[in-house]
## 1
Amino acid sequence: MMGPVAVVPPDESNPSNPSNPSNPSIWLVAENPAMAQILARQLTAPYQPIILAHLSQFILALAQMEQNRRAVLLGVVPDANMAAKLNVICGVCPNLVVYGLMPQAQHMPPDFQADFEMLSLPLEKNQLMTALASAESKPLLRILGKLIFDPRHRILRRYIGGIASVQLTHKESELLDYLLDHAREICVTRRQILQDLWQYHPDADSHTVASHVYRLRQKILAVSGEGTANTAGDAPRDTPGYAPGDTPGYAPGDAPGETMPRLSGGDEGYHISLPAEARMRSLYYLALLRSLPRGSPCIDVCAIEPDGFCRGCHRSRDEIAAWRGLDETAQAGLLPQLGERQLWRPKATQNSPQITAKPNQVTA
């Protein structure tokens, strides 16, 4: 069933919109139009929901959002299939909070494990507002290429290509957070770190920074799964093979700084290099593509509008015809364009006649 689609274009006056980072974006995905409207009426300022009828539409919307801001998905869960799809979404966007809204009569299989919080329908208004306030208070995770850093819980984990994680000590977590805040600088000196994190006197000297940097490097390599940890590079001075300024080795095919953060430096200072923004976005689009329920943006609303794009998936005839012949990278590269069209097309196609696509034209 095709329910309401209310995709709001960027507008600073809308606090739920991705262009305004001060409040989380609230997205409501419900195939049942009546259910969507009932839930939407329960949300009051500052929460203004963006209503979608299909999970694939939400994934296209994510392609237009920055990963470093909070978003909340309220997904109506009519069956276990939808719950499984929400589980996949939870692992794609690190700063996305998902709530599954499940009718009381509906039950999940006994062995099903949800990676999101379930709320029973019908909902009291205060329950919904409490859940949204809780989501808003969650700390934002820091995205470092294929790794995610959770400062509150001091966890460094990999979210693309694996689920490995390592626990950082309190000081290691502080050091990583500090270096990320200064990532745009050429380097941060050891004395500066000692003064800011350890509150040492400006004239004091210590090798504790080198020791912490060494252990932090090893943990980054361990969780990456692509690096080969070695004993060189700011190890404690009593460690065999110590050589000031050396940097750890990486496995073949994983260029340092391309998909993983690289922590470098020595006695003169330290610097953390992050993957290029374009590379990080391409990884994100690929993860979004793999989370599409059908492996494509198609939602079975196949109608070519006068503007030349499909009403349901926002692809052109040529893009639909060529889709299956594209590799994953090319398919993923189209997602931000489709997400952008989804923003402006509802107004452009309102009250306009539609051209239904022939079955042989729709190849998903």
Note: The mean pLDDT is 77.
## 2
Amino acid sequence: MKRKKHLMFIFGLLFIINLLGYCVIQYQLEREASIEIEPKSLTEVNNEEDVNVTLLRSKDWPEGKFYHGVQYDVSILNDSSHQLTAWEITIPVPKKAKVTDSWNIVYKCEDDILTASPVDYNMIVEPHSQQTFGFILKTKEIEDIESLHAHFIPIYHSSDYPLFWANVAFTCILFISAIISIIVELRTASLRSQNLMDKHIIIQTMKTFSNFVDAKDPYTRGHSARVAYYSRELAKKLHLPDRDVELIYYIALLHDIGKVLIPDDILNKPGRLSPEEREIIETHTTKGAGILKDFDAISGIADGARYHHEHYDGSGYPAKLSGEDIPFLARIICVADSYDAMSSDRCYRPRLDNDTILDELMTNSGKQFDPEIVTAMLDLIKETNFFEVIEE
């Protein structure tokens, strides 16, 4: 679930970044931009694209005694990769000159300034193309016009921006990654489902074995399941990793499996055991480890069976281990196992009262039990009513 949330967060963040990229492009498209051109000059567009305007006096002729007719031709060269629109060219003309004719433009002439604008059919100057227009002046003097001012609005497209193609590539990568993630998630979900089913089968099998062990003694029915539960709660209280919390439950379920090889008459003997019988009972730890030695699907399961009767002071069995030499999970099972034994009726005695159980735990802290685990057990008893028999 955490992995799924992380993926959703990452994809959400990438989507927002991608969206911001498109917003930047849209801003660039909508922002007012213009090109201003002085006569016979080149203006760079994006550092590599040219727009140029030229004006030539192509012919002149006399009109009456005092006037001349003069024809001017204007050429707009768009060598850029953008369309140009809404162009407007202002041209200073000789004083008191009058426009007698024009083509390809709409014009007005005021204060010796002619302003030329496009007509409907030449509103847009296409990339890498040229448009021309012209006009005829009736004037007293023939002059070359040496200055003009041109104004254009370039039409930009998304594809004109490198950022657009970067965003397209990014979108494709994001889309492909999302598809791959969905496929992986579906496959992972299928594997998780299969793993849960396998886990359920394993747990049911282990519970069946633990029930089989407990069935040999009517007084210990449910003992293995309760020890597994107590062990798991202790592991949580001791802040063990989730993996160890899960493992100890399975290990504790089969901690007494060696008892299947102990004769029933010894196992269920109501009176005191003889030294020989006690030796036989104690072999259930090594016999259990022998049964589980090849069960490598659950790490440490054989150690749980072998060492759960080792004592912290070294007085336990079968190996007389002490302190930190005893596997930590086995030390936890030892406390859980002893607690359940004290709080349950047995063939050789009734359950102990609550005060006696607490006293036994505290008295044997540092002797039979790891003091750290005893402290955790006492806290659990206070927090949760462990004196009520719990079966899962």
Note: The chain has three domains: 2-29+163-186, 35-155, 216-383.
